[in-house]
């Protein structure tokens, strides 16, 4: 066996490890490489019917009937998608937004082939953002929409407060 053979194996092992870290590049403390099975498990927990504004159990945002809240891990996006669509990447979630104000040159993932939309209606002329964090602290994932003002809301796929209790008098 040539003396360079172990270095070649080490090089391929390093590339595999780098690819796994690139998937979760926003998580600097992630040190374990991911194999295909772990990625499949993560993808299967990215469909929700209800999420929580600031994690508050009393402030829910629920998908309309026939829709789910979906997370596109590949593109760092979330949004509402018909329940019949299997892969979140097939939902056509918006990656960038253009308005006549601070996002006049685009906000979001502007250098990508993702859907771009323009906010021009008088009641919702601004690009607004909603961020979603999953229960395993993966995220945040971005949802872009037109709104009455330029806002950024934070949602969680889990509650950070106790559910309100009902009391009897």
From TrEMBL:
Keywords, ordered alphabetically: Signal
Signal peptide: 1-20
Domain of life: Eukaryota
Full protein name: Thaumatin-like protein
Organism: Parathielavia appendiculata
């Amino acid at each position: 066996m040539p003396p360079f053979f172990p270095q070649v194996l080490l090089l391929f092992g390093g590339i595999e490890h780098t690819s796994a870290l690139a998937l979760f590049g926003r998580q600097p403390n992630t040190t374990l490489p991911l194999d295909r099975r772990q990625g499949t498990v993560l993808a299967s927990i990215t469909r929700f019917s209800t999420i929580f504004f600031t994690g508050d159990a009393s402030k829910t945002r629920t998908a309309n009937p026939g829709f789910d809240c979906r997370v596109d891990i590949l593109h760092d996006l979330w949004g509402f998608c018909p329940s019949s669509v299997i892969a979140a990447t097939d939902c056509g979630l918006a990656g960038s937004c253009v308005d006549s104000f601070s996002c006049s040159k685009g906000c979001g993932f502007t250098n990508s082939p993702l859907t771009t939309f323009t906010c021009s209606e008088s009641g919702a002329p601004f690009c607004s953002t909603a961020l979603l964090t999953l229960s395993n602290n993966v995220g945040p994932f971005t949802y872009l929409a037109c709104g009455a003002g330029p806002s950024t809301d934070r949602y969680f796929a889990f509650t950070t407060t106790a559910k309100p209790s009902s009391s009897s008098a």
